[in-house]
TrEMBL record:
Pfam families linked: Thaumatin
Chief location of this protein within or outside the cell: secreted
Leader peptide range in chain numbering: 1-24
Keyword terms, alphabetized: Disulfide bond, Glycoprotein, Secreted, Signal
Family that this chain belongs to: Belongs to the thaumatin family.
Keyword Signal belongs to the record: yes
Annotated organism of origin: Actinidia chinensis (Kiwi)
Keyword flag Glycoprotein: yes
PROSITE patterns: THAUMATIN_1 (PS00316), THAUMATIN_2 (PS51367)
Protein name (Swiss-Prot/TrEMBL): Thaumatin-like protein
Subcellular location: Secreted
Cystines in this chain: 33-226, 74-84, 89-95, 143-215, 148-198, 156-166, 170-179, 180-185
Length: 244
């Protein structure tokens, strides 16, 4: 509590009042892939999205450490239990936690320092679906659309290849060099592979300067899977019932 008061120069009760009076943000989550994507959100749950379908999600002001991602090759029963090849979150349709790598992530925190929203696309958990993450307001400075639409699965280095996606090296090797869990670390050949193809996206955990974007608090956003309509990998990877 003391830190919050010092960091903002305002009493905590006033901060809470400001956040509570702010408007919730609306996220339009669209599936533009030619196959089914099981969208996942923390907070928010999950939803099956056939090709061209959309899910509107309202998120409370002040929400932080939040993420949206897509799951592929899922099979759920009538009670919402099952499994996904990529992005699975505890074997349930309605996610309560985070997904299992590899999964392309849209991450955000609303109404933070200076009443700014912070958002990014992260490949720190690897890549499974091309993604665009865009504010719905007019672009200005760091408040602009960001995307990762390269053929990462098709070009994935052999040690990082996995069914339906491309792992980040931290997931595979679990060392300080790639995971940055015990102090500072820098780019590697593997992180450069991701960065060269998706310059807007986090390529390793401390890739902050070129990978974090901001918009004024109160903005709304759109997350699009396969924004250019091309999945960049063979549709036979998916069951016939998943391809529209």
């Amino acid at each position: 509590m003391g830190y919050l008061t010092m960091a903002f120069g305002l009493p905590v009760f006033l901060l809470l009042t400001l956040f509570s009076s702010a408007h919730a943000a609306t996220f339009e989550i669209r599936n533009n892939c030619p196959y089914t994507v099981w969208a996942a959100a923390s907070p928010g749950g999950g939803r099956r999205l056939n090709s061209k379908q959309q899910w509107n999600l309202n998120v409370a002001a002040g929400t932080k450490m939040a993420r949206i991602w897509g799951r592929t090759k899922c099979n759920f029963d009538g009670s919402g239990r099952g499994h996904c090849e990529t992005g699975d979150c505890g074997g349930v349709l309605e996610c309560k936690g985070w997904g299992v790598p590899p999964n392309t992530l849209a991450e955000y925190a609303l109404n933070q320092f200076g009443n700014l929203d912070f958002f990014d696309i992260s490949l720190v958990d690897g890549f499974n679906i091309p993604m665009d993450f865009s504010p719905t307001r007019s672009p200005s400075g760091k408040c602009r659309p960001i995307s990762c639409t390269a053929n990462i699965i098709g070009q994935c280095p052999n040690p990082l290849k996995t069914a339906g996606g491309c792992h980040n090296p931290c997931t595979v090797f679990k060392t300080q060099e790639y995971c940055c869990t015990q102090g500072p670390c820098g780019p590697t050949n593997y992180s450069r592979f991701f960065k060269e193809r998706c310059r807007d996206a986090y390529s390793y955990p401390q890739d902050d300067p070129t990978s974090t974007f901001t918009c004024p608090g109160g903005s709304n956003y759109r997350v699009t899977f396969c924004p250019n309509g091309s999945p960049h990998f063979p549709l036979e990877m998916y069951g016939e019932s998943d391809v529209e």
